[in-house]
Amino acid sequence: MNKKIIIAIDGYSSSGKSTLGKAISEKLKYKYIDSGALYRSVTLFAIRKKIFDSDLWDIKNFIPLLKDMNLKFQWNKKYNKTDIFLNKENIQDKIRSEKVATKVSFIAQIPEIREKLTSIQRNIGKNKGIVIEGRDVGNYVFPKSELKIFIKGSVEIRSYRRYKDLKKRGEKVSYEEVRKNIVHRDMMDISRNISPLKKSRDSIEIDNTYLSIEEQLNIIFQLINKIKK
User: Fold this and answer.
1) Mean pLDDT of all residues in the chain?
2) Domain containing 107 — which CATH number?
3) What is the C-alpha to C-alpha distance for residues 129 and 55, in angstroms, rounded to an integer?
4) Mapping DSSP to helix (H, G, I), strand (E, B) and coil, where does residue 109 land?
5) Between β-strands 6-11 and 31-34, what pairing exists: parallel, antiparallel or unpaired?
6) Residue 54 domain-assigned?
7) Is the per-residue pLDDT at 45 higher than 90?
8) Most exposed residue of 7, 39, 180, 214, measured as fewest CB within 10 angstroms of its CB?
9) How far apart are CA 34 and CA 17, in angstroms?
10) Strands laid side by side in the 6-11 sheet
11) What is the extent of the structural domain holding 190?
12) 30 φ/ψ angles, rounded to the nearest 5 degrees
């Protein structure tokens, strides 16, 4: 059981990947990596540089600014989580706003950014013993990971989960706004040319629309135990 593996969790927006990934990493004492947080970090950087203030979203104008972006993933042993630093500022809480969420799909389409962030993720996972979740981690970032999970759920359930989370954070949003954004993000993730969201052939699909986190963990640890034997 000491054999370290890579567990890759892909899936749709607000499908509960983070909750699941954190729970698995805590039980296994593995590092947890939220790849989406990296893209959110770049999005926050773009917002601060006022890239989206114009109606004309121009990728060419943004790429040169990346040289001023220093992004680091730092493992926080005390709280068993990863902290993300943008130019030495811990932005872990700042990247969870709905403002960032509505723009992240634009950033995720840029090849230069995907290449840079993929390199960061692979470097973190080179010694295995990680749980990583995102949109393309099983297909592209870690195609040889020992266990690949693909999470999905109904749009209504995912929207409600996201809505509750945002309200808990004190954001003023409506359920319909959240639902509209999730449907839009699904479309963008599925249709992008570079590393689109899709289930790989060797992924185990879990529809968690009616599953509790305990039921999902039970399924996944049965799979992990089979791999580690």
Assistant:
1) 90
2) 3.40.50.300
3) 43
4) coil
5) unpaired
6) no
7) yes
8) 214
9) 9
10) 31-34, 130-134, 6-11, 147-152, 204-207
11) 6-32+97-214
12) -100, 160
For residues 189 and 116, give the distance between their C-alpha atoms in angstroms, rounded to a whole number.
18
CB 204 within 8 A of CB 11: no
Predicted confidence (pLDDT) per residue in 52-108, tens digit: 876 666 777 888 888 889 988 777 777 667 789 999 999 988 998 888 988 898 888
Could you tell me the pTM of the whole model?
A: 0.86
- Tell me the CA end-to-end span of the chain in Å, nearest whole number: 7
Q: Is residue 17 part of a domain?
A: yes
Domain membership of residue 179 (yes or no) is yes
The upper half-sphere exposure of residue 110, i.e. CA atoms within 13 Å in the direction of its Cβ, equals 21
- Confidence at residue 54, expressed as pLDDT on a 0 to 100 scale: 67
Q: Coil, helix or strand for 31?
A: strand
For residue 25, being part of any structural domain is answered with yes
How many domains would you assign to the chain?
A: 1
Nearest to 25 by CA among 139, 133, 141: 133
**How far is Cα 76 from Cα 78, in angstroms, rounded to an integer?**
6
Pairing of β 71-76 and β 204-207: unpaired
